[in-house]
Structures are given as C-alpha cells and as structure tokens.
C-alpha cells in the first residue's frame, strides 16, 4: 500500500486517523499489515490510504456508520487498539466524517 | 510541518486531498509552502496535517463549508490549483467531509 482509492458517489464515511508513533516497533509493522488485511474483509469497507512523515495519516473509507462501528468492535482489532494505546502511539486522533462531495483529476 | 492538529468540538469540516505527484518539481515545494501559509490566514481555517509516501495525503480542517468555498476561490489558490492540474499531480482526489465525532489519546 498505498494506492489512491476509488470511492462510490457520496455520501459515504471516512475515518481519519492521525498519529505520532513511539520508538517502540515491537510488532507494529506486522500488526499494521494484519489490520489492513482484516479491515479490507469487513462488510462496507471501501478502501484505505496511508502515509507517514512526522505525522502518520490513515484515511479509511466506509459505506456507513454501522460498518465503522462493527470494525471498531472487531475482536482482533480491539486487541490492536489496546496495543496501540499502550505501546505504539504517543498521541493519536480519530475523526469520523461524512463525505459529502468528491472530485478528481 | 506537520504536527497533529487540535480541533474544536465537532461538527466541523475536513478537506481530504490525496494525490500522486508527477516527477516535475518545478516550483512545487515553494508553492506548497506558500499555500500552507496562505490557508492558515483564511477565516475559518482550523489546521492542516500532511504526509507523503507512495500517496500524498493532506487533511485540512475548516469551521464550515463557507470557509472551504472561500479558500477554493482564493485568487492565488486558483493559480496553484491550475498548476497542480497541469504540472504537479498525475492524479488527485478532493473529498469534502463533515466531521461528526472525534476522540484522541
């Protein structure tokens, strides 16, 4: 990853996850790959884009709030979220946003 | 840049700009710096986060749709948008999204 995502006509939802990593790399990359794989299998998942420099930005796209809720509560994802809070991120913000318009080149 | 942005209580708006750059660097970095400076002076601008790897992701935050519209129509920004389409980006997508919830570590 990460290639540009082709999304359907709005409305749909975006989860904007911005983070600063700790220096603790213990299992992070492997877990990130696994979460990407697992997310892409969820009902209502539309795609994900990700980049990191000083700040990491991951934007995942979802059909509706119900799909986001189900993913947030996924058992394996809950474990990853806990490890993220405890070990991998010094700070993060998750924003849930309804995409109302989009245009492309 | 780019440091994590502290945003107010939702609702507010996010502009999610994802792009692939061309190899043409002619003036790009200078213009990107200028647009960042100019955006931050706009009424209703709340902050911006940006990172680029394979894909570039810039998320800017705004008080409301009116502030986004005014920024989109800013004369200097219109010139930059034209150069972006003509020279700097091989592909991009702009998504306008209403942030409904946020939570942080």
3D structure, described in words:
- The structure is a homodimer of 105-residue chains.
- With 105 residues, chain A is an alpha+beta fold.
- Chain A has one domain: Alpha-Beta Plaits.
- Chain A has a four-stranded antiparallel sheet.
- In chain A, a hairpin with a 3-residue loop joins strand 2 and strand 3.
- In chain A, helix 1 runs antiparallel to helix 3.
- Chain A starts with 11 loop residues before the first strand and ends with a strand.
- The interface between A and B is large, with 39 and 39 residues.
- Strand 4 of chain A pairs antiparallel with strand 4 of chain B.
CATH second-level architecture of chain A: 2-Layer Sandwich
- Average pLDDT confidence of chain A is 95
Helical residues, percent of chain A: 25-40%
Remind me, CATH topology of chain A?
Answer: Alpha-Beta Plaits
Proportion of β residues of chain A?
Answer: 35-45%
Question: What is the CATH class of chain A?
Answer: Alpha Beta
Count of helical regions of chain A: 3
Number of domains of chain A: 1
Q: Oligomeric state of the chains? A: homodimer
Order of helices and strands of chain A: EHEEHHE
* Biggest β-sheet strands, sense, barrel of chain A: 4 strands, antiparallel
Largest interface (CB within 8 Å) is between:
A-B, 39 and 39 residues
Q: What does the overall shape of chain A look like?
A: globular
* Unreliable residue stretches of chain A: none
- The termini of chain A sit apart by 21 Å
Strand order of the largest sheet of chain A: 2-3-1-4
Structural class of chain A: alpha+beta
Q: What Rg of chain A is obtained from the alpha carbons, in whole angstroms?
A: 14 Å
Structure summary, number of beta strands of chain A: 4
């Amino acid at each position: 990853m990460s290639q540009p995502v082709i999304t359907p006509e709005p409305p749909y939802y975006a989860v904007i996850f911005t983070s600063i990593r700790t220096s603790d790399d213990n299992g992070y990359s492997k877990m990130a790959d696994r979460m990407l794989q697992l997310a892409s299998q969820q009902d209502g998942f539309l795609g994900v884009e990700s980049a990191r420099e000083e700040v990491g930005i991951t934007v995942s796209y979802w059909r509706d709030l119900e799909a986001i809720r189900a993913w947030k509560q996924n058992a394996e994802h809950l474990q990853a979220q806990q490890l993220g809070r405890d070990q991998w991120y010094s700070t993060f913000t998750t924003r849930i946003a309804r995409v109302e318009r989009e245009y492309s080149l």
